[in-house]
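pinging the channel bc i need a second pair of eyes. not urgent but kinda urgent?? the chain im working w is below, pasted from the shared doc
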Amino acid sequence: MDNHEQETCGAARAAYSAAQRRLHTWIVCLLLGCVAPVACDSGGVVEPPPREGRGATVSVTKLYEKPRAEVDAELDRLGVPATARFGVAAYRILYETIGLHDEPVTASGAVVVPGPVLGALDVMSIQHGTILRDDKAPSQDESAQFLGVVYAADGYLAVLPDLLGLGASEGVHPYHHAATAATAVVDMLRASYDFAAAEGITLSGKLFLSGYSQGGHTAMAAHRALEAEYSDEFTVTASTPMAGAYDLSGVMAEIILSTEPYPSPYYLPYLLIGYDAVYELFDSPSDYLASPYDVLIPPLFDGTHGPRAINALMPDILRDVVNPTLLAAFEQDPNHFYRRLFEENDVYRWSPKASIRMYHCSGDRHVPIDNAYTALEGLKGGSGTVELIEPVSGADHFGCAAFAVYAGKAWIDTF
């Protein structure tokens, strides 16, 4: 770590000691979106700029505007070791993208901008962690915009896509599907850049990506796609994927086969249901889920239920939720179709041009740090540097989050 990052991590640790309960609330907010909404001034509909096809803006709605003092008070209330330099304004954007089978669909996200805008703004695209409920998506829930507020209050244009099947987007969310995650992020960026132009906001040309947990996987997928397919439109400056499942076919597949209890078992049916929607694999949930979970679990992935409701019905051992015949085939066949699909959605076999600094903690049982070690080896051969930082030794998935986020922001601030 450089001196600036060390100072920021030190400040975060000091804040944790002084305000442990408040900072814990913020960590949960970051990952699960459970901070109570605060009062805000609603604006209105903003006239969308013209564009056709992918990335075209359907609508822009101003959600709220907060002066610097109010943002500062919110940061202090949550024990966040940061000071607002600007007030912020947040907007919900609906935009055109492509769906699970390349059909035109509408997706949503949030944009948070500093106020007043002084000079050209860097852009930070922030990918959310695992969420189930539509009303917890960044475009719908103020608590899910919180990290965007932190960046905007420091002078960034913060972009927070909901992804397909969440927020205003209809249908199944394709959980950990790299291609649709990347296109949703890219098209949200297009709509956000158009929004900035329509509002007279100048952008610096610097583009950063970040995300924690599922957001780490999404950030890595989007970074890869932006460099490989959209370099004529965007140039990634750097990215900070955090605690992501980059190695679905290796590290995470072994967790599925493990006989040890897993702390968040709902992740697996979320993945299987999403992949069934994308790849059209089965005729019935009974083909991939064991009884009685084939009947109990799928109805709860309807955008209105949260993790607790699903975990309450789940076994602690992941393999127990899988159809036994399918599980045996997956376990015995090294070329099983699920292994090929997981490999298709691994996000570490490429050579980045822009630098990547991953953040992960060794006590993470939800998404083991071996994902990051695998990525560290796989992301070689490009012009960008690739690093792995453990911001807090031995911390678990939730305990790592706040320190990772602030260490990552300290690094981003150096560009």
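so The CA atoms of residues 56 and 96 lie 5 Å apart. and The mean pLDDT is 91. — does that match what u expected or am i reading it wrong
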